[in-house]
Write a structure and sequence with these properties.
This protein has 201 residues and is an alpha+beta fold. It has helices spanning 74-79, 90-104, 112-119, 134-137, 183-190; strands at 6-7, 13-14, 22-25, 31-32, 37-38, 48-50, 69-71, 83-84, 145-147, 152-156, 159-164, 167-170, 178-179. The chain has two domains: 4-120, no CATH class; 130-183, no CATH class. It starts with 5 loop residues before the first strand and ends in an 11-residue tail after the last helix.
């Protein structure tokens, strides 16, 4: 039985066998090490997305440390409310912060604490994004994730792609779309940040 450590675009943690391009965490241990079951939603505001391997560190998944979470790609991670890690993805984290600052008109790139405060209220299935009709879609940056109530869709090069746990597929424009990517990540994407996409996009 797969562990409940795969992250959906709305932040839900799901048991699924498909693998992803990135891992991450939510600031600590969400699981019971004995049963390897999820017991809580988060332990802090520090939600990050990381590389799968860093400095040859080896970990027992769902051991006594933090809960390892896995994402299809960075577009998924950003939609779920995570941001690039300043340790294992320092260049990407700095690029994300600079891009957000550029779009928001900030004098300097923000630090991790400020960004986490901005992201925290817009995380999880309870977060209701703004509606996005055909006109609004044209103003959104590549990497924006949306929902039509039945699933998730990502915007890339002016077209919508239907998200699934193992990749993307072309789709028609459905009704009732809402943006679920948090505002800070939308700002970073609008400011030029280039997220990692799964290869089927």
């Amino acid at each position: 039985m797969p562990l409940q450590n795969r992250v959906w675009p709305d932040g839900e943690l799901v048991s699924h066998p498909c693998r992803g391009l990135l891992m991450g965490n939510r600031g600590g241990r969400l699981h019971d090490p004995a049963t390897k079951t999820i017991r809580r939603w988060q332990t802090s505001r520090r939600w990050i997305c990381c590389v799968l391997s860093f400095k040859n560190r080896r970990r027992e998944v769902m051991g006594k440390g933090y809960t390892e979470l896995f994402f299809l790609d960075e577009v998924t991670a950003l939609a779920a409310g995570h941001r690039p890690c300043f340790e294992c993805r320092r260049a990407e984290a700095q690029a994300y912060a600079r891009a957000a600052a550029r779009h928001l008109g900030l004098e300097a790139a923000p630090g991790a604490d400020w960004m986490d405060l901005q992201l925290a209220p817009e995380r999880g299935p309870r977060w209701q994004g703004k509606p996005a009709d055909g006109a609004a879609l044209r103003t959104l940056p590549d990497g924006t994730m949306l929902t039509d109530g039945a699933g998730f869709l990502a915007l890339k090069s002016g077209r919508l792609l239907r998200w699934s746990p193992d990749g993307y597929a072309a789709t028609n424009l459905p009704d009732g779309l809402q943006v679920i990517t948090p505002a800070l990540s939308l700002a970073a994407l609008s400011g030029g940040y280039q997220p990692i996409w799964y290869h089927t996009s």
